[in-house]
């Protein structure tokens, strides 16, 4: 009887000790909002930084951060153009693609194989751009091969002279693309 009571008592002590260790565990649950660690959120050297994008604010934190002026929203046009072009070129029916992204429009000129109809290729290009760009962008696509050179020339003319008014030049390309439809 004493032996059985001793085993029960020992089991109870071990169980309570295990529970006490769990409660005092210094490793906090990272998903528990009470255990937020702001220092970890801003760690830009973390190898997982490129895997996930995460931001969390309370209304008070947001209001404190926005006391002066609202932050501008930036779209990396070069990155967007590169992404659209690379996605389209993953389709073997697209042989060459040139993409220009302005602050309001995306112009995509391409050469496609005969396996893809003109309408299907234009639709594919426009949907690809829609999936990458914010919804307020106007997207124009054309299989007119000469527009590839026009888009490239427009890009380099702006690179050489930043004071160039791109509006009329972009509109000229857009008008040509609309004629091709």
TrEMBL record:
Residues 40-49 have a biased composition (Polar residues). Residues 22-51 are annotated as: Disordered. The keyword Signal applies. Pfam families: Spore_YhcN_YlaJ. InterPro entries: Spore_lipoprot_YhcN/YlaJ-like (IPR019076). Keywords: Lipoprotein, Signal. Residues 1-20 form the signal peptide. It comes from the Bacteria. The keyword Signal applies. This is YhcN/YlaJ family sporulation lipoprotein. It comes from Oceanobacillus aidingensis. The lineage of its organism: Bacteria, Bacillati, Bacillota, Bacilli, Bacillales.
